[in-house]
Amino acid sequence: MAYALVSMVVNKLREEVYLVGDAKEEFEKLSSTLESIQALLNDAEIMQFHNESIQAWLKKFKDVVYDIEDVVNDMIPSPESESGTHDGDDRLIGNQAWACLFSVFSCCGLEDWIRLAHESWTDGDDTDNRSIRDKVRTFVSKVASQRDFARKIKQVRAKLDQIADDKSKFSFKEIHSFRGDSELDKAESQTSSLVDESQIHGRDEDRDTIISKLISGSSCEEGRIHVISIIGVGGLGKTTLAQLICNDERVKSHFHKVLWVCVSDHFNLINLTKAIIEAAGGTSPPHSRLGSLQKQLIQTLQDKLFLLVLDDVWNDDSQRWERLWLSLQRGAPGSRILVTARSEKVAFTCRDSAYMHKLKGLSDDDCWLLFSSKAFARREMKDCQELVKIGKEIVKKCKGVPLSAKVIGSTMCSKTTTQDWKDILESQTWEIPDIATGILPALLLSYYNLPVHLKQCFAYCSIFPKDHWLEKDILVKLWLAQGFIKPQGRREMESIGGEYFDELLRRSLLQDAIVYFEGVTKCKMHDLLHDLIQFITKNECCIFVNGKSDYSSVTVRHSSFIATGEMSHIPGPLCDAKKLRTLLQIRNSLINTIPDNLFQCARSLRALDFGGYDSSIKELPSSLGSLKHLRYLDLSYSKIVELPESVTHLRNLQTLKLNFCRELQSLPTGMSAMVRLRHLEIKETTELKYLPEGLGRISSLRTLSRFIVGGDGRCKIGELKRLDSLQGKLQIDHLERVASVDEAKEALLENKLQLSILSLEMSGVGEVERMENVVEALKPPLANLEQLEVWGYIGSKFPTWIGDSSFSNLVKLKLIDCNNCTQLPGLGRLPSLEYLEISTGLLKRVGSEFYGNGSGGCINLAAFPKLKHLEFKGIR
User: Fold this and answer.
1) For residue 343, what pLDDT is reported?
2) pLDDT at 518
3) Which of 240, 398, 739, 742 could share a disulfide with 404, CB 3.0–4.6 Å?
4) What pLDDT score does 132 carry?
5) pLDDT at 597
6) What share of the chain is helix, strand, coil (3-state, %, to 5)?
7) In angstroms, how far is CA 37 from the centroid of its own chain?
8) From the CB of residue 683, how many other CB atoms can be counted at a distance below 10 Å?
């Protein structure tokens, strides 16, 4: 983590900040010191597991590097002044006078100052109209900024020099950064939460033994639900074995219901009871008390023969378990509870514990099968006999732990030479006593062999609690907000970040990937990997549970909080955390107010998340606008009616999430100034009736969930003209407000080539001929669109482009409440169409034209080659 942090800061200094004079000199000294320490960091990060003094030294070092980055971020030009350039080409000089002046002063060593003056002079689009006074003021301001930067850099450099002197105490060796892949390989998508049985080895006997205990025994044991426990150290595959058992046909046919609930280390009886109800197919009110939830659980399981899996149990409080047991006794006789846990004490605490299965490690042969399936996924073992020999020695060091074999095998997949494999086999990391640290050496090796950028992204996940579902889209946007994603030419940053996520999956550092509706991908992280990154990031990243954390908040940089029960405020320590960069609300905490001093204190915030299903937040303090470094803001599901106008001061904001803010009525009028905004998410904002004028000037937008067509003085459809970078889904509401065909054509919808889903929605009123012409003019990008919805169209005929065979990738089409249409378009020509839903009240018949026929009137037998779902609604 330290090496990755230094790399990011040094690159940012070189690429984003233009320095002159003392500031340049101080920066060069600082960079030299940083690079001298950086060469030793790989060794230091390994040795910290043996030496607490090294842990303390690394903590001090990382604190200073974070401080350096804060100073650098204050120097990065604001979006308003980004038109200036520093490359010394003809555009920099601008005219002959400046070229002459530059040539004269360059021989005196003053060319940097001349460049700075010229930048100030020509800054902005209205150079000719700016007064001399304004130009001079800009130059003086930049000079003052340079001097202030030099002063701050000198202060942090003094701290850094002391830390550099201290490093001599530890005899660090210079270890070059581990070789990573030159390019990331896309991970194969995992689309099911079911366990992949082909990746399980050596557990048949364990499975059969436990299943026999689950389905055997007397069925008349009234009032008793036997508990079967799987006990073993972390990484042995307890959860995987439980999944294997649940998916066995013997178990599925025996029990009426098989329920899976992940308990983890934050044992909360209310949340656990809710989770069991939901696993059984029920729903529970968000603010229910325990008593009412227990009654609901009893009704849900009444007379049902069930198997309840409680995965990853840590709590051994017998009183809490007794209260849970009372709710589970009405199930049918023969019901069972299967518990996975690391501690035998947990098993003994469980009431009616009938059998404890102590899970052992795999044999070397079974470990090899798991290791080789990952390590040789992209090459033939018969062609790599030397690697096979080394690999079998590596497997022995895994000591029968399947997680170790799987993760280190995934790491070896990207190692191409015999020397790479020998380096892993002979690494001193294997000698770290995992009994003392609780961290497996194989996991450490896999972490240290990550490329720098993946280390940062993976370690950042430590701010989420164990067993939390990590959503790909959210993670990528958070990584982007923190500056973890490296630009690659003109490629989209979100696409690059998506490859980072996929690569972490391929390396088995993330697992259990599931693709939900609309392509949302979620995954989890194994507990031991979570323990690893929490150790690596302790004092930098922490989780507050009901206001408490294991680490000090003084130097914390990234934090999340979980507020359960009656807690309705942000933990006090976080309100005083001056160096905070990330603050996330987790698991629908019941926060109802945001203190004003939070934003006055945490001026370095990059990511702020107060979203959640139970959010009671109704307003935001105006001081939110002072967070000039903020790049990610999530207020989804909150009860806010409007955002403060100060939000428009967040000129670096990249992501603004307002999904399901059902009471939100307006957005700030000055949003056009937010020129770096990439994602404006406003799904299901039902009270939002219009968008602010000028939104179309934010040409950086990639996501715009809804575009609400407005009338005079509000955002008209022509604002879409410049937004050609829009991606994903675009919903256009209130098309009846489009005044003319010319206005519709201004949207240039056909140029939005990266859209995959388009929804055109109208109120069902208006002039028929005008609406027919407007929708005809809104021809979308036919070749790329995958889903199209048309709602409330009042025309008597559909636009000609709907049945165009150029819609080659259209999979789903909905024509809803198009009640005046008497004839259908030729949809049979659409080669990829799988889902078709039509609702039109005046439709009398479906003729041959529907199949996309030419002349002759015969039904085209080749029509709808891929159609799977056809539904007609509302036919009168």
Assistant:
1) 83
2) 64
3) 398
4) 59
5) 79
6) 45, 15, 45
7) 32
8) 14
Three-state DSSP state, 728: strand
User: What distance in Å separates the CA atoms of residue 91 and residue 109, rounded to the nearest whole number?
Assistant: 21
**Tokens at residue 482, please?**
């923190």
Query: Mapped to the 3 state alphabet, what secondary structure does 324-375 carry?
Result: HHHCCCCCCCCCEEEEEECCHHHHHHCCCEEEEEECCCCCHHHHHHHHHHHH
Beta-carbon neighbour count of residue 775 at 10 Å? 23
8 A C-beta contact, residue 627 and residue 606: no
For 88, 106, 199, 631, the CA distances from 92, given in Å and listed in that order, are: 6, 14, 59, 30
Burial 599-617 (b: 16+ CB within 10 A, else e): bebbbbbbbbbbbbeebeb
Rounded-to-10 torsion of CA 632, 656, 659, 490: -90
Secondary structure class of 836 (helix, strand, coil): strand
Q: How far apart are CA 796 and CA 361, in angstroms?
A: 70
Tokens linked to 847: 């003729």
Inter-helix orientation angle 402-412/364-375, to 10°: 30
- Listed in sequence order, the residues at least 6 apart from 61 whose beta carbon sits closer than 8 Å to its beta carbon are 2, 37, 160, 163
Q: Which of 179, 178, 175 is nearest to 43 (CA)?
A: 175
Q: Are 800 and 775 in contact (CB under 8 A)?
A: no
pLDDT value of residue 6 = 76
The three-point CA angle 426-428-429 to 5° equals 110
d(CA 794, CA 775): 10
Looking up tokens 């530890």 gives 170
Q: What separation in angstroms does the CA of 705 have from each of 84, 599, 658, 659, 677?
A: 33, 28, 10, 9, 13
Write down the residue that tokens 């008390």 correspond to.
Answer: 289
Q: 441-448 and 402-412 are packed helices; what angle lies between their axes, rounded to 10 degrees? A: 20
Distance of CA 667 to the CA centre of its chain: 25
Among 260, 49, 21, CA closest to 148: 21
Lateral strand order in the sheet of 728-733: 706-708, 728-733, 755-761, 787-791, 812-816, 835-839, 869-873
Indicate the burial class of 89 (C-beta count within 10 angstroms; 0-12, 13-18, 19 or more): exposed
Q: What DSSP character marks residue 229?
A: E
CA separation, residue 383 to residues 120, 378, 379, 388 (Å): 63, 12, 8, 9
Residues of the chain with pLDDT below 70 are 1-3, 12-18, 20, 76-143, 174-198, 217-223, 265-267, 285-287, 351, 433-438, 517-519, 547, 550-554, 564-568, 587-590, 614, 713, 853-861, 876
Strand order in the sheet with 679-681: 541-545, 558-562, 582-585, 607-609, 632-634, 655-657, 679-681, 703-704
Would you say 112 and 20 are in contact if contact means Cβ atoms under 8 Å apart? yes
As given in the structure block, the two tokens for residue 455 are: 């280390």
- Measured in degrees and rounded to the nearest 5, phi and psi for residue 221 equal -80, 80
810/139 Cα distance (integer angstroms): 55
Q: Which residues pair with 642 in a beta bridge?
A: 666
d(CA 755, CA 355): 56
Q: Give the DSSP letter of residue 376.
A: T
Domains contained in the chain, CATH given:
2-83+123-169 (no CATH), 203-358 (3.40.50.300), 364-533 (1.10.10.10), 633-873 (3.80.10.10)
The β-bridge partners of 561 are: 544, 585
Concatenating the DSSP letter of every residue in 57-119 gives: HHHHHHHHHHHHHHHHHHHSPPGGGTT---S-SHHHH-SHHHHHHHHHHHTTT-HHHHHHHHH
Beta bridge partners of 835: 812, 869
